[in-house]
Structure formats: C-alpha cells, structure tokens
Amino acid sequence: MSDRRSTYSLNQIYFYLTEGCNLKCRHCWIAPKYQSPERVLPVLDLKLFRSIIAQAKPLGLLGVKLTGGEPLLHPQIREILEVVRYQDLRLTVETNGTLCTPELAEAMKSTTENPFVSVSLDGADAETHEWVRGVEGCFDSTLEGVRNLVNAGFRPQIIMSIMRRNKDQMEPVVRLAESLGAGSVKFNLVQPTARGEKMHEA
Questions:
Q1: Stated pTM of the model
Q2: Which terminus of the chain is more solvent-facing, meaning fewer CB atoms within 10 Å of its CB: N or C?
Q3: CB 150, CB 190: distance < 8 Å
Q4: Over the stretch 22-67, which tens digit does the pLDDT of each residue have?
Q5: How far apart, in whole angstroms, are the C-alpha atoms of residue 97 and residue 141?
Q6: What's the CATH code of the domain at 138?
Q7: Between 190 and 91, whose confidence is greater?
Q8: 97 in helix, strand or coil?
Q9: Integer Cα distance of 152 and 30 in angstroms
Q10: Domain tally for the chain?
C-alpha cells in the first residue's frame, strides 16, 4: 500500500512573546490577564525561543510572527530580533506601536529582507482611539511609533478594529494612515468574546 501522505514544509510560527500589555483594550481576547496591566506576567524564555527555532529550521521554517500581548514589552526583544536576523527568517510583528522607538524600528528593519509590521489604530482622533485602547495619551504614542517605522524604511500596515463606536471613522483612518506613510489598512470586526463580550452594544 502506497503512502499517500503529502509532505509539507513549515512556513511560519506565531510566538506570543508575553501576555502583558501597556494598554487596556476593551475588546482584548486575552481578558483575564489584562485586568491589571501593571502585573508582572510571564514572557517567552529566550532559550526556549532559540530552541524552537533550531528545531523548526530543518523542517523548512521560513518566518516568525511576534505578537502578544504587546511583543515589544518583552525584556529581551532585541535578543529575539537578533535570533531572527541570524537565522535569516522572515519577520512579522503585530504591535500597538506605543513602544516603537527609532532604535527598535531600526532593529526590526535590519533583521531580514522585507520585514513586515502591523500597528493597531482604532480611530482618527485621540478621543476615539483612546476610548478603545483604554489609556490616555496612547494615540500620540501610536502615531509616533508609526512615524518611527516609516522613517526606518517600513510601510507599516494599520489594523483597525471595527465596532459601533468607531465605524464611521474607517475613511478618516485610511486618510490618516496614508498621510503617515502606511502601506495598507486592514479592518477587523470585533468578535463578542472575552473582554469584547459586550462590544456589540458599544
């Protein structure tokens, strides 16, 4: 009897680097861990990250996606980026942008050819974005993070989570993203789960 099983190579691994976050998003699906963002939460061990990559490379691993929580909160994010660079892996990062300094933007850009970064932006003004994200001042920090990415050579993707409160700001967000130098805008419909359980009412 012939073996009809196909052999697939490993394309990408998603790494949730930390459950911690510096924002308090109303719709977050990692709800229980976000009730107190100031708590010290577990992070992915750097040795474990290296070990997983070492085991995955022979299986054909091409890239990694770094997310969370807020991945840039990881205390060894630079070392993680260096592993990605050394292993010549395609890099994708999902971030809220508030911690994206010029130095971190450059570090991400230098990992490999054509790294990709997505930044969450849920409104074209501070009132709307900060209502969704739960932290005063995070709108300006997010825009600054996007500018730092653009200055480093990225054309970041903007991700907007759509709900009743901000549904009329889709076009303004697209215009804002274009003015910042973003390369694309992605719209996600908020699902009524975890912290977003009642978002259909918002």
A1: 0.89
A2: N
A3: no
A4: 999 988 877 545 445 556 678 999 999 999 999 999 999 999 999 9
A5: 7
A6: 3.20.20.70
A7: 91
A8: coil
A9: 31
A10: 1
Q: Which two tokens stand for residue 184?
A: 């694309």
160, burial (CB in 10 Å: exposed 0-12, middle 13-18, buried 19+): buried
Domain with 21 in it: 12-201
- Strands annotated E in 39-183: 63-67, 90-95, 116-120, 157-162
Q: Is residue 96 within 8 Å of 133, Cβ to Cβ? A: yes
Alpha-carbon distances, residue 68 vs 71, 86, 152, 182 (angstroms) = 5, 22, 23, 22
CA–centroid distance for 28 within its chain: 13
Closest C-alpha among 78, 160, 172 to residue 119: 160
* Beta-bridge mates of residue 125: none
Task: Establish if 5 belongs to a structural domain.
Answer: no
